[in-house]
Write a structure and sequence with these properties.
Radius of gyration: 18 Å
CATH class: Alpha Beta
Strand content: 25-35%
Order of helices and strands: HEHEEEEEEHEH
Strand order of the largest sheet: 1-2-4-3
Distance between the termini: 53 Å
Largest sheet: 4 strands, mixed
Helix content: 10-25%
CATH topology: Deoxyribonuclease I, Chain A
CATH architecture: 4-Layer Sandwich
């Protein structure tokens, strides 16, 4: 086995992180339920459509540290909470890569190997700016992210797609590739 493969295998074996992701529909009750469930079980909680008060103030939890974007004069729609007792890795906000209300980036570094994984928390919704020609986050922000070919990336996404496979009550498909294929058979 080459040294590079040995390092990759060792990195994968030592970085065992538990992640919970959820769309909170701007509800403090859902956010608190996620945090209660995640306590003592989860290393990172990733939320989309989180509840925010003026000045981007949100809920707090005694077991987690909140990492949020530094976007000014807007309500961010993505948050990441990292367990205070996470000793296997460290997380750092990467607003130099992404600084948006709909997407955030954090760097995850394993204390033993010092190799970075970039975690992207993505919420695909229309821009809050009415003059924005590129309406959805994917068009506005994700295409701008520049990574090198060696960068390890985890995308955690809520693409705001609506399809009957996810919810039987959905009859109007939105942002789904299967829309055209499925509608031909209906």
């Amino acid at each position: 086995m080459s040294q590079n493969n040995a390092n990759n295998k060792s990195f994968a074996n030592t970085l065992n992180i538990w992640i919970l992701q959820h769309n909170c529909a701007r509800s403090t009750q859902i956010m608190h339920a996620c945090m209660k469930f995640a306590k003592n079980k989860t290393d990172i909680v990733i939320l989309q459509e989180s509840w925010m008060r003026d000045e981007n103030i949100t809920i707090s939890h005694s077991s987690f540290i909140c990492i949020k974007s530094n976007v000014q004069n807007t309500h961010v729609r993505v948050l990441i909470f990292v367990a205070k007792n996470a000793k296997k890795f460290t997380c750092t906000s990467r607003s130099d890569i992404v600084n948006s209300e709909d997407m955030q980036a954090i760097s995850i570094v394993n204390n033993k190997i010092q190799r970075e994984i970039l975690l992207l928390n993505i919420y695909n919704e229309k821009s809050q700016n009415a003059d924005d020609e590129q309406l959805y986050m994917i068009e506005r922000e994700l295409a701008k992210v520049m990574l090198n070919s060696e960068q390890k990336v985890i995308n955690v996404e809520d693409f705001n797609a609506h399809h009957s496979w996810r919810n039987a009550k959905i009859s109007n498909f939105i942002r789904t590739k299967a829309e055209n294929k499925v509608s031909k058979f209906i």
